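Re: weekly structure request thread

Next one in the queue (298 aa):
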Amino acid sequence: MFSINRSPYKVGVLTLLLIVGLTLLVGCDNREDTPGIRQPEIVPGFLIITGSGVESETRFTLDELKNMEEGLAGACYSAVNNWPAQKFFVGKGVKVSYLLKKAGIKDEAQTIIVWAGDGYSAAFTREQLEEKRFCFPNLREDSEEGAREVPAILAWEHWEGSSDLSKAASGKLGLFLGQKGLNDAVTPVYVKDVVTLEVLSSPPGQWDVVQAEPAPGKVKSGTQVVLTHPQLDQVKIYYTVDGSTPDEKSRVYNPSTTYFQPDLIQPITINESMIIKTRVMGFGKYDSPEAAFAYEVE
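Done, posted below.
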């Protein structure tokens, strides 16, 4: 407990603690302003689709979105967050792919940024919003059985914590999309209060490769290998030790983040000679090249 008095030093300390606390609260929701990117102008009452990747800026009212009968969809979405916790969401709205076509998306469009009214944003490669993604009804049993394809949508009716579509209730426009694998952490990009889709022709870039410590080579049995990445909390490191190519179904090195449960990020113990193959995946950029680390037990 803290006692508050008029001491400038104690007031300063308390202020600092309050700032840190608020920062942690923002971090826990995994929602923060995107640094270095300027948000397009907001027009209240309209969804705006703009940027160099569309023929011209387009604006839609909510009523116009609801009348796009050919593009309407409703689905249940399985999801994992960065705690990690497994959840289900339901949503009713319009397909993102349909909206982008209506707005005249160009062939050269490569990057799509989804903006919220509060300045939060999530970036995607074009492929990440167009590729096949799924709802895994048996997510909590770690099973892909019964998986069904679901579209990326902007939903005006939605609900968290249920797989019953009838429970979807009116709310601010929200982005929902499916998972590629059971460990695909999608909730950080479930943007709430969507106001703008910014479509760009600029390339999204590629995630950096993983680094390993100690370096590959001869090691003693029991050696622990630590995998690192400069954007560890923004990506997932998928890896294999059986010689196969890592993909979204492989084991995840960092199931949580350094600000949630860092103890879940465990080194890989080398008890026999092996090759660790890694690939970095995350929204907003292309997957990293594969990086392989060969260890020989002495």
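Residues 1-30 form one domain. The first helix runs from residue 8 to 28.
Next request, please.
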